[in-house]
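Justification of computing resources. Each target in the renewal requires a structure prediction run like the one illustrated here; the chain below, 86 residues long, is used simply to show the kind of job we budget for.
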Amino acid sequence: MMPTTSDPALRAEPGPRRPHSPRHGRRGRAVLLIALVLVIAAGDTAFAYLGTLAATFDASTQKIAAAFPQESDRPRLPRPRTAGRR
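Resulting structure tokens:
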């Protein structure tokens, strides 16, 4: 007779379980925290740079008061010719 796996003598007994190392979880959180700090620092640096760039641009540009005159001050355009009339 061939032994079956239901025989208690043939069942493999589980060996002692290795305890879970809490370092893996701490290492992952530390990497995540460092990445978050780097992203915040990069965003802060970019924000400061762009703010300085905008202030420099505003300080060095000339403001043109009459860039867009009122409609009444604009010259009239000649009427376009239609195709059927001469």
